[in-house]
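Long-time lurker, first post. I've been practising inverse folding by hand and with some scripts of my own, and I keep getting stuck on stretches where the C-alpha cells seem ambiguous. Below is the full C-alpha cell string for one chain I'm working on. Before anyone asks, I'm not after the true native sequence, just a reasonable design that respects the backbone. If someone could post their per-position residues I'd love to compare against what I wrote down in my notebook.
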C-alpha cells in the first residue's frame, strides 16, 4: 500500500528527517509532493508547480514517462536485482554497449556505479591504481579546478574547491590535492596565454606526483554554475599528455545533452582518459552512474599487483536501474534532442534577458538547457523558496545563484512562466 501524506507525517518529517544541506534548528520549509507528471509536481495542498530543476538535473524526460514506466514494469517481472560479482545480465551489458557507442571514441571499458559521487570515487581509484600498477606509486596526488564540484563523498570532497565546494569543515582530514585557477575565458572566448601559463607551471612543478587532472568540462556546476571556453579542454588534454597525467572528465551534470552536445567533451572534439556520468542516466528514475575509461587504463590495472580493479558496489549493475537507463537513452536518441535543447536555450535567453537590466544582477548566462542569474549579493533561501512555490514554479537557488535546468520536454509556455518567476523573484530580492 502506498503511503499517503498526512499531518502526522509532516510533523515526523520536521522532527526526524534530515534533508539535504539542512538543519533541525530553524529548518527551511519543505513542500510535500504527492505525484509528478510531465514537468509538474503536485503538492499535498493541491497546487501544481512547474519543475525548473528536473530533480537536480536528472529528470530530462519529465515525470511518469510511459516508455520508462514500461521498462521498469517489464524488468520487475523478471528480476529487480542480482549481484554483479560473478553474474551478468542483458540490461547491464546493453547499457554498457550504449554508453561506449555514444561517448567519445576510445572509452571502451565501463564500470557501473551507484551514484555520481561514487562514479567520481571510482575515477579517482582508477587513476591511483593505474599509476600504482605501473610501478609509480609516487603519482598519488590529484589536481582539480577552483570553483569545481565533484560530490559529497570523501574522495570527491577532496577535489572540490576548498572554499566554494561547501566542504571546508573537513579540510583537516581530507587529502591535500592541488587546485588550478578556475578558467576565466567565457564559453565563446579563447583561453588567455596567462591562464595557460599558470596551469602549465603547476604541471611542470608537480607532474612527478600527479595521478590525474579532474575537471567538469565546459560547465562548472554546484561550485558556481560557471561556463568556460572549450579551448581549455584542449589545453588540459595537451598538458596531461605531455606530463603523463590522466585526464578525468566529470560529466555527471553535463552528460546526455544538457550543454547542447551529447557530452561536453564534444565541444572540443576530444576524449578524456576517464569519464564519469550519472544524474540523467536513468531519466531521474533511480540512482545509477558509470565510469568509463580507455583501454590503457583498464589494461594496466588488470596486469597490476592486485590483478583486478579494487571496487565492487553491492548494487552495481542493478537490472532495474539499467533497464530504465536503456529506455531513457533510447528515448533521448530517438528524438531530435539537439533541436529541443536549442529551443530551450532560445527560451531561456529570451525569458532571462530582462534580468540584465536589474541593479542587483551581476550576470545572466545561458548554455544549452541551463539558465543562470547571478546576483551581486546572496539571497535568503527560505524567502525565495516560498516565493517560487507561490509563483507556481520549483526553483532551488543557492548563494548568489538563481538557476534552472529544466526537463527537455518543457513547453515554450511553461518555460516562459518559469523564467518570468525567476525574474520576479530577483526583482524583489
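-- Answer (accepted) --
I ran through it position by position. Result:
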Amino acid at each position: 500500500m502506498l503511503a499517503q501524506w498526512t499531518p502526522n507525517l509532516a510533523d515526523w518529517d520536521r522532527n526526524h528527517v534530515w534533508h539535504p544541506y539542512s538543519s533541525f534548528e530553524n529548518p527551511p520549509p519543505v513542500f510535500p509532493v504527492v505525484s509528478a507528471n510531465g514537468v509538474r509536481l503536485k503538492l499535498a495542498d493541491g497546487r501544481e508547480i512547474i519543475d525548473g530543476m528536473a530533480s537536480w538535473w536528472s529528470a530530462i524526460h519529465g515525470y511518469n514517462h510511459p516508455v520508462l514506466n514500461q521498462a521498469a514494469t517489464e524488468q520487475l517481472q523478471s528480476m529487480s536485482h542480482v549481484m554483479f560479482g560473478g553474474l551478468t545480465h542483458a540490461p547491464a551489458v546493453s547499457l554498457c554497449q550504449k554508453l561506449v557507442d555514444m561517448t567519445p571514441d576510445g572509452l571502451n571499458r565501463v564500470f557501473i556505479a551507484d551514484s555520481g559521487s561514487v562514479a567520481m570515487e571510482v575515477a579517482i581509484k582508477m587513476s591511483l591504481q593505474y599509476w600504482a600498477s605501473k610501478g609509480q606509486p609516487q603519482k598519488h596526488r590529484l589536481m582539480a579546478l577552483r570553483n569545481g564540484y565533484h560530490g559529497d563523498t570523501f574522495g570527491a570532497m577532496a577535489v572540490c574547491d576548498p572554499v566554494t565546494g561547501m566542504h571546508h569543515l573537513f579540510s583537516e582530514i581530507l587529502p591535500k590535492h592541488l587546485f588550478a585557477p578556475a578558467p576565466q575565458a567565457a564559453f565563446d572566448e579563447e583561453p588567455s596565454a596567462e591562464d595557460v601559463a599558470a596551469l602549465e607551471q603547476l604541471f611542470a612543478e608537480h607532474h612527478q606526483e600527479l595521478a590525474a587532472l579532474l575537471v567538469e568540462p565546459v560547465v562548472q556546476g554546484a561550485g558556481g554554475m560557471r561556463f568556460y571556453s572549450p579551448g581549455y579542454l584542449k589545453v588540459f588534454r595537451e598538458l596531461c599528455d605531455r606530463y603523463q597525467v590522466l585526464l578525468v572528465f566529470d560529466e555527471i551534470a553535463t552528460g546526455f545533452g544538457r550543454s547542447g552536445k551529447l557530452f561536453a567533451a564534444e565541444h572540443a572534439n576530444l576524449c578524456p582518459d576517464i569519464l564519469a556520468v550519472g544524474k540523467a542516466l536513468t531519466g531521474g528514475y533511480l540512482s545509477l552512474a558509470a565510469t568509463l575509461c580507455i583501454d590503457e587504463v583498464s589494461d594496466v590495472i588488470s596486469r597490476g599487483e592486485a590483478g583486478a580493479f579494487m571496487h565492487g558496489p553491492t548494487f552495481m549493475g542493478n537490472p532495474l536501474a539499467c533497464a530504465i537507463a536503456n529506455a531513457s537513452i533510447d528515448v533521448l536518441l530517438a528524438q531530435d534532442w539537439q533541436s529541443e535543447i536549442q529551443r530551450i536555450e532560445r527560451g531561456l535567453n529570451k525569458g532571462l534577458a530582462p534580468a540584465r537590466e536589474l541593479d542587483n544582477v551581476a550576470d545572466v548566462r545561458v548554455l544549452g538547457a541551463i539558465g543562470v542569474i547571478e546576483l551581486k549579493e546572496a539571497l535568503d533561501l527560505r524567502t525565495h523558496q516560498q516565493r517560487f512555490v507561490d509563483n507556481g514554479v520549483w526553483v532551488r537557488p543557492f548563494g548568489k545563484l538563481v538557476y534552472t535546468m529544466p526537463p527537455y520536454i518543457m513547453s515554450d509556455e511553461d518555460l516562459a512562466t518559469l523564467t518570468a518567476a525567476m525574474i520576479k523573484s530577483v526583482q524583489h530580492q
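A couple of notes from the structure itself: The CA atoms of residues 343 and 412 lie 8 Å apart. The chain has two domains: 7-64+336-427, 69-334. Happy to go over any region you disagree with.
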